User: Fold these one by one.
Assistant:
Number 1:
Amino acid sequence: MKVKVVFTTLFLVGLGGYFLSAPKGVSSDQKAACEAALDKRGGSAPSIAELKKQCNDVGMVAMMQAQGQNESAQDAAKRISAANQAEVGANGLQMFFLGLSLVGFLGLLFSFFKKKSL
């Protein structure tokens, strides 16, 4: 029984580590396209610089893509919403597996210390 718990915990730790190491956010190509779209858009240099900092956000990239394709406001909102929901779902799954692995690890520690004290 204990061997199954150890292997399950190790599997969950590995799965959590995989999700932690998986690429998050936007790719470098998407970030560059977002920054280029902001440069084309024009405006004051400080405001453009501040907006470029937000090009790491999937919602900002989706918004700039929608503007670049002259989409309607509803289509742009759907695109931004879909990008944000995908990011939230991935982060939630990552936290779920990390939490499970932490509970399994703490359970193993507790069971080893409990046996030593008896």
Note: The helical segments are 2-21, 28-41, 45-53, 58-68, 73-117.
Number 2:
Amino acid sequence: MPATFTLALLASCAWLLLCVVFLLVLVPTQSGFVLALKMGVTIVPLLLLWGLYAAGAGGEKSIAALLVVILVITELSLRRRAFEDTSADPQNLVKMAVWGVGLLVALINWGTLRQALREPATALLALTTLWFAATAVYSPIPVYTLGAAIALLAVVLFGAVARRSVRESILLKAPAAALTVMLLVGLALYVVAPDRALAQTEGGTVLRLAAPFATPNQLGRAAALVVLLTVIGMARGHVRWRSFLVWLGIPAALACLVLSQSRTAGGALLAALLLVYGSKRPRRALAMAIVLAALGIVYSMLDIDLADLAALVSRTGHVSELTTLTGRTAIWAAVWQQILEQPLLGYGHAAGKVLIPQIYRTFWGWTATHAHNMWLQTWFTTGLVGVLLLLATLLAQLRYCLRTRDLGSLALLAFVFVAGMAEAGNLSGAPSVLTVMWALWLTGPAPAPAKAQAPGARAAPGRSARGLGLQA
């Protein structure tokens, strides 16, 4: 019996067992419609798995296509519901089915997955998601915690396999193209159906573009990633100036960044682009840093009213919006008090979805479902254990980047780190678009051994002795 067939069979049995326990035993079935949905979630991934197996489960095209589907479906929102709602509605069940296919494909490509897990950063992130799943034991929403953690694990493992099975050019262009289509849909809705496209924030006084995602910050992150992937593709020689990603994708992304008013995504994008630029041309990066420092000195010497600057960058024109980071400092204070009561283990992965609304509300009744900080969110939900695992993962990824000069991994590391100062979208609950891209670019394939060359022979263009990294 072929090894791949055996792995597919074992993965199918494991999926059936997981669905029976998770969907039938832990989550009560209240109607025939819900039962039919659960049956679909169980059966559809198996049909897709065996279809992929028949087409070559480890094939580049099938894995790239599945990557695009996962990326599109992960944060696509076709309904509105309460922040605290953790029920398994049809949209969540469809997403679980898609993530489940990714998990099954990763498992049946065990040889590739085992190679990926030899990289400390990939192994540590997988271990982190397993710890998240273990916190379901004491979580106030155990089923949601377990489901979200399994989904994170599926994305991490599939991303590791996809990075080693698909060419770098496709991994840059396909996600950027898929996200560009979603951004264009959002801009079209903004024109023809603004009531559906805009989200009310700041007590209903500020309207920000969110469609086709659930929140403006999700749209902003997706837009920033389109720009970042396109720029990396251009730096690596995979995207040319005449590509539609340049003349259509980047303008659409910049428009969505402005209309979503996502300053965190903009700041993370700027940091990642500076890092990409500095990695290619260190001297020019140093010159840019000197210019910025000089501008800072000039500003300190001029008599400029802070309120005038606030009016330029704030949504409400108030200085307090900037000094409180749009109310984040109040959220951090409330979450920190809860951390002090349960510092070691936390309250359970994604538990902030029901706990934060109980401890924090604004004057207008607005609340949050995560701590708006990656580190506080991880500490609040999974304790000091989760924080140490996350820190170890990021340090291992940094070490990998320094060792391999992997430009994509380095850029995503910078983006995740900076965005994590004001958001927790990559680890707050179920996977996000940023989670998918981080897992995909976390680590890459081991570089092929250098072949002996004749004296005077030149290396192939676009490649270095270190594989997929920058040229030395």
Note: Residues 450-472 have pLDDT under 50 and may be disordered.
